[in-house]
Amino acid sequence: MKKSIIALATVLTVLCSANNIQANTAKLESGTTEIVDASQLQSVYDAYFTVKDALIKSDSKLTSAKAKDLLTAITAVKMDKLKSNEHTVWMKVVKKLTADAKSISATTDLKKQRETFKSLSKSTYDLIKVSNPEQLIYKQYCPMADADWLSKEKAVKNPYYGSSMLTCGNVVETIK
């Protein structure tokens, strides 16, 4: 009888331990999903900023290469992993984002790249407004180009004119 009670207690202990392990595994998996959700669009934003930085340098070949990276980031987004508000905006802007990234990557004409960057910036702004970026993002505006762009830095570095008018523009919005 005593052996039966000990055996039963051992079985119950093993079962309880197994349930705890399953619960902790489920928590870890759901935590991982949230991390994936957060980084889904972050890679698109990061690639956008590298395109902007290449335009600031007035380097058309680098801009083209960085636009290809942006295209890769756009196509890697798994729509089913986005939050509902992000998904709604993503569906509205994904075709334009893709077309703009393709257009910029397909040319080394700096003027054309900068013109297309205006549209790319608008689509990226629409998307970043509904997500929670990892850091502050500054929407900046250049009256000479009559165009906006996004930046991680508050200091103005104009992608539309590069070194010829590097500081032309101002911060018009801070996105948190």
Overview in brief:
This protein has 176 residues and is mostly helical. It has 4 helices and 3 strands, in the order H-H-H-H-E-E-E.
Structural notes for this entry:
It comes from Flavobacterium fluviale. Pfam families: DUF3347. It is a single chain. By secondary structure, the chain is mainly alpha-helical. The chain has one domain (40-175). 65% of the residues lie in helices and 10% in strands. It contains four helices and three strands. The model is unreliable at 14-37 (pLDDT under 50).
Keywords:
single chain, 176 residues, mainly alpha, three-stranded antiparallel sheet, 4 helices, 3 strands, DUF3347 domain-containing protein
Question: Average pLDDT across residues?
Answer: 85
Biggest sheet strand order reads 2-1-3
Oligomer kind: single chain
- Let me know the largest β-sheet: 3 strands, antiparallel
Number of helices: 4
How large is the radius of gyration? Answer: 24 Å
In angstroms, what separates the terminal alpha carbons? 66 Å
Number of distinct beta strands: 3
How many domains? 1
Secondary-structure content class: mainly alpha
- The 3D shape can be described as globular
State the helical fraction: 55-70%
Low-confidence regions: 14-37
Strand content: 5-15%
Topology:
Elements lengths: L1 H55 L3 H17 L7 H22 L4 H21 L6 E6 L4 E5 L18 E6 L1
Antiparallel strand pairs: 1-2, 1-3
